[in-house]
Amino acid sequence: MKGWRLLLSLLLLGFMSAAQAENMLMARTKLNFEQAMEAIRQSIEDHGYTISHVQRCDGGLKGFGYKTDYYRVIFFGKPQEIRQLTRDFPQMIPFVPLKFAVIAEEDETLVAIFNPAEMAAMFRDRRLRIQMARWKNDFESILEVVREQTVVMPRDN
Amino acid sequence: MVTGKTIRCIAVLPGLLGLLGFHAVAQAQLDGEKLYEKHCETCHRGHGEGSIGLPLNPAKFKSLTDEYLFRTIRNGRPGRIMPAFETLSDAQVNAIVGWLRTWSQSEPLVDSGQKVSGNAENGEQLFLKSCVVCHGKQGKGLEEGTGVTYSRERQFKVMPPAIGNPGFLASVSDGMLKEVITHGREGTAMAAFSELGFGSQDVDDVIVYLRSLQLTEKPAWRHDAMETPDPTLFVNSPYDFDMTVANLKRALSGYNFRTFPDRYIEQGLFPEDEINRKQLTIRFCNFNNLYDMLKIEPRLGIGLPCRITVIERDDGQVQLVTMNMTMIGQLFNNEQLMKYAHQMQENVIEIMEEATL
């Protein structure tokens, strides 16, 4: 059992180092902003994460008289994971909850997040590096769903 | 303890990784379009209309060599957002170049590989007279960021490229530079030197000047960040939790920051009565700076808002915690943004020191 765990860890770290070219993970979608927000919300939740809140950056900018398109930041995480991380690794506190920026660009929408594989290089702890490799796989999958989605059906809840 | 099972697991690892690697390369050779969608579309848009990255205007493809496109993907643009795609295989990069070529009927520029010679001093004078307005001092680009302008107002609809950038200069041949400078760029504001009355030697002089800008050492903005190599900054507070929070808010208001409502890290993740109330994040913003920074880096939101968290450890020590902006800022690969990051970092350190005096 331990052997397989070690193998999985090595595999995750292997993928992580193989992906170190891109500092950010991003997706562009032809969905308009509202639909894209719904798509990213659904995809985050479908991957087992909880959205803690959404910050409206465009609201503050407009309040100061600046012209800007829709701009939101979605904060999210797995509750127990975030609690454990901030307890065991206080150096992670500035980086949680995790966050996607959602940026309107005319009739398209761009979604971006730091590539955890790149951030992992800044943290020496092996457990953190493995955690970030997991995040990287999850974020890529979340973005892939958004990238592929052409229609968003509102969820009943 | 290493067991027989562990050894067997490790033994199959190279084969497994080799298989995965082979599969990845085979897939890449098949589909340049898919690779473009994954690695390029977010910044250049689906048909090269441009966004954070410059438009990939098919009308100008005839003035580009395939080698230039290949090297551009490989080298990126250090300090100008575009990353160096070092981990893509040659086959994958060629597949992307091949996909781009399907957008245009024109044949790629074929370059003889000949180097030009000339007078760099005259080239500099010509550059200052005719090029600096769009391409910036030493070809570093203008101070308002890259790519296409959308909702946030900038001087140009399409920001001119940084032709003194080391990634550009490492990608472009003298022959291609000569072609572009002599004939200009169709569909862009780039005028033909031949029409402006400059001769062939003048063009060579400008090229020799541009070559003189090619940097060999690591850019200074990356050096600076490494002086504090930890991604997180901690400052101990001699005060209790509530007093530290109050001090911090007072210090922030003195630096012209607007603070947002308090927020616990666990808020929204746990029920209200289960939240750890000894991890309070104070979020703040200067909207004037934010607007200027978003013009330079539209993806800045992934690092927003500016925040300092007040925590109380199990041993009762209260600490202020924040990210090392000059280190994390490097992930944006954006030299202009780093100037703001350095300033913000200085301010935040002063604020944390003031709050814990």
Radius of gyration of chain A: 17 Å
Distance between the termini of chain B: 49 Å
Multimeric status of the protein: heterodimer
Based on CA atoms alone, the radius of gyration of chain B comes out at 25 Å
Label the structural class of chain B.
alpha+beta
Extract low-pLDDT stretches of chain B: 24-29
Q: Provide the structure class of chain A.
A: alpha+beta
Largest interface: A-B, 69 and 70 residues
On the 0 to 100 scale, the average pLDDT of chain A is: 85
Average residue-wise pLDDT of chain B:
87
Short description:
By secondary structure, chain A is α+β, with helices and mostly antiparallel strands. Chain A has six helices and five strands, in the order αβαβαβαββαα. Chain B is an alpha+beta fold and about 350 residues long.
Write the layout of secondary structure elements.
The complex is a heterodimer of chains A (157) and B (357).
Chain A lengths: L1 H17 L5 E6 L3 H14 L3 E7 H7 L7 E7 L1 H10 L9 E8 L2 E7 L1 H5 L5 H23 L9
Antiparallel strand pairs in A: 1-5, 2-3, 3-4, 4-5
Helix pairs in contact in A: 1-6, 2-6
Chain B lengths: L3 H27 L1 H8 L1 H4 L21 H10 L14 H12 L18 H11 L1 H4 L30 H6 L2 H10 L16 H13 L7 H6 L6 E6 L3 H14 L3 E2 L3 E2 L14 E7 L1 H10 L9 E7 L5 E6 L1 H4 L6 H21 L2
Antiparallel strand pairs in B: 1-6, 2-4, 3-4, 4-5, 5-6
Helix pairs in contact in B: 1-5, 2-5, 6-10, 9-10, 12-15
